[in-house]
Amino acid sequence: MQTLILTVIGDDRAGLVSALADIVTTNGGNWERSQLAELAGKFAGIVVVTVPDERAADFRVALAPLSGLLDVTVHTAEGEVAQEPARGIRLDLVGNDSPGIVGAVSGVLTRHGVNVDELATTTTSAPMAGGHLFEAHLVASVPEATDLGALRADLERLASEIQVDLDVDAL
After folding, report:
1. Is CATH 3.30.70.120 what the domain over 86-170 is classified as, yes or no?
2. Could you tell me which CATH class the domain 2-76 is placed in?
């Protein structure tokens, strides 16, 4: 079996997932994992599928008719990447929206060797404050050698500087 990673994007409309799933199934494949979402009128995501080795070329060709409906790029998985032992954390952030929040938080995480596994962000209207609220929910892997106290202190210092509420919990 070949493991393939599909990146997909297209104008949002009903039937996109079904069209892609039909091609996976028709070619003897299995839909393993996915993260898909509608953002700004576009439907986008990433899908991991496995396809029998002898059907992989046909599977790639079968995706061509989706052009115009979904732009699909196929990447071949290179196998499992060896990673050092890690602990999980969940980070939840909320505050007034301003440019640079994601860059600032991810900069602190990078300095501590933390790998972002999942990140979801949104902005919502804050009618009482007259602006927009920014929310981020993040799951990350922290290397065993990383000092969690120092990481938490740096994140709390940043939260104070950029005036956001931040919660960090071990998973």
Report:
1. no
2. alpha beta
Q: CATH 3.30.70.260 region(s) of the chain? A: 2-76, 86-170
Q: What is the pLDDT of residues 72-94, one digit of tens each?
A: 999 998 766 556 788 999 999 99
Spatial separation of the C-alpha atoms in residues 30 and 24, rounded to whole Å: 6
Burial letters 51-66, b for 16+ CB under 10 A, else e: beeebbeebeebbeeb
User: What's the pLDDT tens digit per position in 47-73?
Assistant: 999 999 999 999 999 999 999 899 999
Q: Please give the single-letter amino acid code of residue 62.
A: A
* Whole-structure pTM value: 0.82
Q: Quick count: other Cβ atoms within 10 Å of Cβ 47?
A: 20
